[in-house]
Amino acid sequence: MPTTSPIAVVTGASSGIGAVYADRLAARGYDLLLVARRIERLRSLADTLSEAHGIQAGIIEADLTEEKSLVHIEELLGSDERIALLVNNAGNGKLSSTGDMSDADTASTIALNVIAPTRLTRAVLPAFLKRDAGAIINIASVMAFHSLPITTLYSATKSYVLALSRGLQGEVSGTGVRVQVVLPAGTATEFYDHAGIPLSAFDPAAVMTTENLVDAALAGFDQGEDVTLPSVHNTELWADYEQARAALFGATQVGIPAPRYLVNS
Ligand SMILES: NC(=O)C1=CN([C@@H]2O[C@H](COP(=O)(O)OP(=O)(O)OC[C@H]3O[C@@H](n4cnc5c(N)ncnc54)[C@H](OP(=O)(O)O)[C@@H]3O)[C@@H](O)[C@H]2O)C=CC1
Ligand SMILES: CC(=O)[C@H](N)C(=O)O
């Protein structure tokens, strides 16, 4: 039976963080559009959530690194007026140096972590702005502000997601549209099955459950946060970081080289 409930589109809903977002959003009364490649997993989740929460859940089999899939979802995002929330969650990352990473993995990580959320955001944003309502949740990572020799490319893609989100927050300021960026630290998901380093290699004390991660991220969303760091207890750390970043940027706006670089004058 057709409903008038708002729809949440969740990419990467077939496992991990995306699957828990799907569950929590269904519990909040959203109908769902679940996107990923593993269609059987999506079907099973959609059936479970429809039954448990009395919502409607559609599934889209899509490889978000492929043009055809992106175009299909872009068309939906731009045309279905019930779509009220986009969760750009699908992402991957091989943990290895850039030199050791294959060309295929390099291209896939950039396509999935950078191109896909950009394209889907650009597809949905005009409709949200027109309606003066809607929200985008972008799943970045704490690696957005930390690069290790084995996370170079992954960190670069997540820095992009953070910068994209921060810029978008400025663009939608004063409208009814929201953009939240979530920066998880290590979370117990299948991410590590594909990353080349197993989850068991990490300190269990530093790894969050997927449920805790998503519940905290949604609590941050409910509190109106633009940037949510679920594992950071001391909120002053982010405030200090932002203050230092803004001060550094301000200090660049002087138009003359710093004295230490005036070596020949
Ligand atoms: N786990 C962690 O420690 C952290 C994770 N994150 C981020 O969280 C997000 C979710 O990852 P997480 O839940 O941990 O990992 P999972 O591997 O459990 O989930 C990744 C999801 O992305 C989907 N996906 C992967 N490749 C594609 C593709 N080409 N096209 C469409 N969908 C795809 C997968 O579905 P399918 O294979 O069926 O296509 C799956 O649903 C990612 O952006 C990740 O970078 C951030 C910080 C920490
Ligand atoms: C690469 C990692 O360490 C992890 N997935 C994260 O994003 O923090």
Automatic annotation (TrEMBL):
Coiled-coil regions listed in the entry: none
Keyword Oxidoreductase: yes
InterPro entries in the record: NAD(P)-bd_dom_sf, Sc_DH/Rdtase_CS, SDR_fam
The entry's keywords: Oxidoreductase
Enzyme class, UniProt record, top EC level: oxidoreductase
One Pfam family this sequence matches: adh_short
Record PROSITE patterns: ADH_SHORT
Gene3D superfamilies: NAD(P)-binding Rossmann-like Domain
Chemical reaction(s) catalysed: L-allo-threonine + NADP(+) = aminoacetone + CO2 + NADPH; 3-hydroxypropanoate + NADP(+) = 3-oxopropanoate + NADPH + H(+)
EC annotation from Swiss-Prot or TrEMBL: 1.1.1.298, 1.1.1.381
Single GO term (MF): 3-hydroxypropionate dehydrogenase (NADP+) activity
Span of the signal peptide: none
Family: Belongs to the short-chain dehydrogenases/reductases (SDR) family.
Described function: NADP-dependent dehydrogenase with broad substrate specificity acting on 3-hydroxy acids. Catalyzes the NADP-dependent oxidation of L-allo-threonine to L-2-amino-3-keto-butyrate, which is spontaneously decarboxylated into aminoacetone. Also acts on D-threonine, L-serine, D-serine, D-3-hydroxyisobutyrate, L-3-hydroxyisobutyrate, D-glycerate and L-glycerate. Able to catalyze the reduction of the malonic semialdehyde to 3-hydroxypropionic acid.
This protein's name: NADP-dependent 3-hydroxy acid dehydrogenase YdfG
Originating organism: Sphingomonas oleivorans
Native organism taxonomy: Bacteria, Pseudomonadati, Pseudomonadota, Alphaproteobacteria, Sphingomonadales
